[in-house]
Structure formats: C-alpha cells, structure tokens
C-alpha cells in the first residue's frame, strides 16, 4: 500500500496506531528517538504493508503528536519576569514559578550537564 492509495481516514487510523506504538515502546528507548522512530516505521511497513516513505510520513506526524503530549508545559511569557520563569501545564491547570537562579544552578551549571552549549 502506498501513500497514494491511502485515504485520509486510513492515514488517521494508521497514524493513531503509530502513536500507540511510540507511546508503548518509548520507555524502552529513552535516549534514542531514532531507534524508536525506525522500529515504528518497520512496524507500519510490516502490519499495514506500507512503503517506507509512506510509513515515515505517518510516523513523523505521530512523533510530532507524541512530543506535543510529552512537552505540554509552556513558559508563560506574560507572567514571567527577568528573574522568574512561570511555567504552566494547560492540561492539568498547574503553574510553577521557578527562579532563574535555580535554572542556572541546577541545569546550566550542573556538573553532569553535557547537553547545554554556549551559543
């Protein structure tokens, strides 16, 4: 089955299946999104007989949804100041006020911080 043969309802159903697969196996690959992505593509190819490009397109869309779900907290720019970051989770209604000093000490200057780079 190629993407040209997929109707919109089929794509939505298969994308939902990809999202379910991503959520199920994400804990097994916490440090490697690429492995999880490839496993999901292979899953769609084998289960739905999709071409690799069609599967990649649907997995990309599902992966975007997954990241939105996982990263639902937002910085509230209107409520934040130069010394305080206000973070909200619209889904739960929770709000956190985090001093910028704490972010610098615990994230940016953390001894095990190898991800943050000076730009």
UniProtKB/TrEMBL annotation:
Domain of life: Bacteria
Name of protein: Prophage PssSM-01
Lineage: Bacteria, Pseudomonadati, Pseudomonadota, Gammaproteobacteria, Pseudomonadales
């Amino acid at each position: 089955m190629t993407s040209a043969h997929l109707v919109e309802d089929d794509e939505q159903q298969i994308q939902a299946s990809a999202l379910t697969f991503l959520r199920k196996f994400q804990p097994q690959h916490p440090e490697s999104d690429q492995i999880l992505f490839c496993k999901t593509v292979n899953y769609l190819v084998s289960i739905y007989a999709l071409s690799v490009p069609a599967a990649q397109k649907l997995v990309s869309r599902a992966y975007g949804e997954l990241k939105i779900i996982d990263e639902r907290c937002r910085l509230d720019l209107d409520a934040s100041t130069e010394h305080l970051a206000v973070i909200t989770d619209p889904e739960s209604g929770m709000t956190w006020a985090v001093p910028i000093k704490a972010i610098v000490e615990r994230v940016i200057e953390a001894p095990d911080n190898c991800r943050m780079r000076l730009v």
